[in-house]
Prior knowledge:
- The chain has helices spanning 2-19, 22-37, 49-65, 82-91, 99-102, 122-134, 147-152, 164-188; strands at residues 42-46, 75-77, 111-116, 137-142, 155-158.
- It is of the alpha/beta class.
- α3 runs parallel beside α8 (164-188).
- The longest helix is centred in the last third of the chain and has 25 residues, at 164-188.
- The mean pLDDT is 97.
Amino acid sequence: MLVNEIKAYYEKEKQLLEMLDFEEISKAVEAVICAYEREAQIYIFGNGGSAATASHFANDFNKGISEYLDKKFHMVCLCDNFATLMAIANDISYDEVFRFQLTGRLKPEDLVIGISGSGNSVNVIRAAEYAKEVGAGVVGISGFTGGRLWELSDFHMHVPVEDMQMTEDLHITFDHMMYRVISNYLKTGV
Length: 190
């Protein structure tokens, strides 16, 4: 019985992989490469499982891809300093934990990557709105309908399913795909 449920889960994920908009995903990958080439800061953030994914992205870019490069990625995960997050959440508002960290730091040449399974996490939306005010690019990594994050994003990495676990599964594949594709691009220039 469990074998059938396990198989059905992965069959659904195979179907979702076929539904991804690879042209749109490619534009988001190119935006990250362009940010790297202009030595911009890349800020990444999300809540819950998306916070873990954001941290994983930062690790893979700052250590993984950057290890053998003379010029390094400048990716900052806004989820990784728990003391800062808790102080902002407690003293100001949880809705401001990402926007507050960007205030006075984010430049128009920078890039923000917001991760929200629903696309409607208020703190992710507020940070994306602030990025738009500053003139920085926004990559939205979302699921479900894409929500408000879809509307605010210049570049989309979207999983078209109303299932949080499958959304988050494919979000981490975006990280690993980018690791491989960008590493290869920086080695070969193609």
